[in-house]
Amino acid sequence: MEKKIRSILSKINEPILSKDFSTLGFVFDVNVKGDSVKLRLGITDMDYTDFPGIKNKIAGKIIEEIPEIKKVEVDFMLGIVNHDNKQKDVVLPGVKNTIAIASGKGGVGKSTVAVNLAAALSLEGAKVGLIDADIYGPSIPIMLGINERPRVVQSNGVNKMLPIVQYGIKLMSIGFLVEDNSAVVWRGPMASSALKQFMSEVLWEDLDFLLFDMPPGTGDIQLTLSQTIPLTGSIVVTTPQEISLSDARKGHNMFVKVNVPNLGFIENMSYYLTPDGNKEYIFGQGGGRKISDEFKVKLLGEIPIDTEIRVTGDSGKPIMLSKPDSDSGKIIRSIAKNLILEINTRNSSPSKSAGIELIV
Ligand code: ADP
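Above: the input record for the complex with adenosine-5'-diphosphate. Below: its predicted structure, written as tokens.
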């Protein structure tokens, strides 16, 4: 019976990606009891507007093709398509997508974006891990208010580190491996061996996304790290001003050089919202859009300069977790949704680049 139902689901399309539920890996549970069946299926967007329509379609088809079934209940949850990559599956079994968050230069808000994006993806229903690989200044433990260090456990006879779990996000940081205030010079090979350790010696278990907060810049260290991780893609964070854009171009080109697709740019510090509601373009306007158009890559979103983003980051509970319904929180949420759509579209049609226009 379950087989028959799964075969029917292989002929019905998930409505957003227009690929069938089975191919996408979106059939999470099929539970048959007597003449009724309960299904748990994945969908790319939990804000999809016609759940009754798709539920009726699925129930109708099953009842039509299997007359013994009288009742069908369908529950939807967020579905993330696996990035088909053998190297990743060996090093990080259970992790569906690995994403490097990079910037051409420091101080553009890369770590702030990484931590808020991780939180936003988690709020959408994704299982998220975050590796703070910023060897120059691992700041994510502070942004997430973490004071403990990871424990080591035995898993299948091997010692593994348990990631710290904070607000539902699994975290590892280079900061956990070095003493506070110690002047450790992380040369390229050391950094990449630490990163390898984070991939193979940490018990990540099942994750939809493992984000890497990369060190800023485009030097040898960054290049080595980009080659060390089997990446689904990168995200390049920039501010709108020309000096940051020229470094973001280098960031984009670095990933292209190692065959890692750039999933999109995020423009941070796009404008300041004055108390009377006007937008002040402190660092210029439209830089993120310009660079996205130039490389034909998505602009995933534009985040304003917001005192609350800075304050909440410093206090250990980023804005996405402390004020998700603020204007900035809503913008970061839309970035997470754009990223999910971009990744699911790419992963479900690997030969094509994503063709769906995003809403920014
Ligand atoms: P990077 O990782 O690129 O070096 P950080 O994320 O550490 O940058 O951010 C640098 C500083 O700017 C931090 O103090 C952070 O709180 C602040 N910041 C980042 N983005 C914003 C923003 N959109 N609005 C206000 N402050 C921000």
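Notes for the reader.
The chain has two domains: 2-78, 86-348.
The first strand starts at residue 13 and ends at 14.
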